[in-house]
Amino acid sequence: MTAFEKPAIETRDALGKKLCATLVSVGYKTARYAAAAEEAAKLALETVPDGCTVGVPGTVTIRELGLMEKFAAKGCTVYHHWDPALTPETRGARLAAENSADWFVTSSNALTFDGKMVNIDGTGNRVAGMSWGLGKILFIVSLNKVERDVDSAIKRARDRATPPNVLRIGGETPCAKLGYCVDCNSPDRICRVLTIIERVPLGREAHVILVGEPLGY
């Protein structure tokens, strides 16, 4: 548990608002703070226009907010590769559709005090969509993922986000049994691509919603 996972409400809100200012200073077009998950979902629906295409990669946060169903209800076409109806032959096209959608909506494994987004992927599709894509991007990140610096953010991604993700997909790695990373060489390892977004990528319009309530891993 980070020092920021269960702070006093006043401290949490102050942190969220300060981080929003920091994120705008490093290139995000908008950064807004929502104390509650319901408010965050409302802001997301205001940000993403009706009727557009939306790519949602492997993110528990977005699904916990019910945003895929909410986007669909406002006429958006939502692409996601967790669809159980996909076959190995059709999954690649769905991954490509996610990353070429009008909006790419995701979370982050960790966020530092100075506005760096740290993420670890298995296939790399999610971090690829964050770094480069045809559309705009919306990050929704809860304050339980905030860390002081890049080193602690990487540690969080490995120790806090990866083990439950492995369990979710039925993998067998040491971290799934121990609850923390041992830098394994397991064939089921999903820590394969590490990215650090220090500033918004050139030519990309990016937005952030920070959330006071804990969400995701």
Describe the structure in your own words.
It is built from 8 helices and 10 strands. The chain is an alpha/beta fold and 217 residues long. The strands form 2 sheets. The chain has a 6-stranded parallel β-sheet, sandwiched between helices. Strands 8-5-6-9 form a 4-stranded mixed β-sheet, with helices on both faces. A hairpin with a 4-residue loop joins strand 5 and strand 6. Helix 5 runs parallel beside helix 6. It is globular, with a radius of gyration of 16 Å. The model has no long low-confidence stretch (mean pLDDT 92).
**Strands of the biggest beta sheet: in what spatial order?**
1-10-7-4-2-3
Structural class: alpha/beta
Question: How much beta, percentage-wise?
Answer: 15-25%
Please give the radius of gyration in angstroms. Answer: 16 Å
Please count the beta strands (DSSP E, at least 2 residues each): 10
Mean pLDDT across the residues is 92
Shape designation: globular
Order of SSEs, N→C?
HEHEHHEHEEEHEEHHEE
Unreliable residue runs: none
CATH level-1 class: Alpha Beta
Helix content: 25-40%
- N-to-C span: 11 Å
- Biggest sheet features: 6 strands, parallel
What does this entry show, briefly?
The protein has helices spanning 9-25, 37-47, 60-64, 67-73, 88-99, 125-131, 150-168, 174-178, and strands spanning 30-34, 53-55, 77-79, 103-106, 110-112, 117-121, 136-142, 146-147, 193-197, 206-211. It has a single domain (9-211), classed as Rossmann fold (3-Layer(aba) Sandwich), CATH 3.40.50.10420. The protein has 217 residues and is of the alpha/beta class.
